[in-house]
Amino acid sequence: MDFALIGGTGIENLALDDRTEETVETPYGFVPLAEGFIGGIGMVFLKRHGAKHTYPPHLINYRANIWALKKIGVKKILSTGAVGSLSEAYRIGDIVLPDQFLDFTKSRAATFFEDGEQGVLHVDVSEPYCPDVRNHIIEGAARSGLNVKNGGVYVCTEGPRFETPAEINMFRMLGGHLVGMTGVPEVVLARELGMCYATMALVTNQAAGIKKDPLTHAEVIATMDLLSKTVAALVESTCKIMDHDQRCYCTTGSKEAGLF
């Protein structure tokens, strides 16, 4: 199957037709995956936080997840992630397609190339999110009567705590629009292995200091419950028109590294 969906908070229960389960062995551990069909299109589904949302953002085995998808032949990854808004332009319930990121993670393994025969890879992330896949999502949304906002800077923090108002103010001054906890290193690892990757950032709350009330995980889940059917429809409409071939720049990372 050429396409995969990495489901974040609130998307753990995506319905797939003819669903089967498998566990893929990688150099970084074992990864459970679901395979099936959505709208007649083959899809691999990976639950980023585990079956029962047991893995916090900083302990997700990102390398195992991305390696497993590559190993079974996935070419293009759609991901979802709950985000807070740093800007009045992005409101609760919006679906945003980031085109850049700022990385404020601290302790995560961020590359496959730390030692060994492969050496070091300085992968290019001038366009971290595949423009071709993002265009397919935009077209899929239009065909389904849905609205997505194209472009934005995603700020990835370490978590699992929410950010302080001072941090949010800093991110805004640096040009950030959205803040989440899972987008990096996932997007970078996908590029290292030559897969296309695009994120559908789901705005579930206003960030600390913008929202006057305390932030809670419950409000994130509540908003995601409302968005889940919309996301499923968007994934289905996108996959129906998405090209199975890669004609973009995303494949260059793995070619340079000589992997797969």
How would you describe this protein?
With 260 residues, this protein is α/β, with parallel strands linked by helices. The chain has 6 helices and 11 strands. Strands 1, 2, 3, 4, 5, 6, 7, 8, 9, 10 and 11 form an 11-stranded mixed beta sheet that branches. Helix 2 crosses helix 5. Keywords: Glycosyltransferase, Purine salvage, Transferase. Purine nucleoside phosphorylase which is highly specific for 6-oxopurine nucleosides. Cleaves guanosine or inosine to respective bases and sugar-1-phosphate molecules. Involved in purine salvage. Pathway: Purine metabolism; purine nucleoside salvage. Pfam families: PNP_UDP_1 (PF01048).
Gist of the model:
By secondary structure, this protein is α/β, with parallel strands linked by helices. It is built from 6 helices and 11 strands.
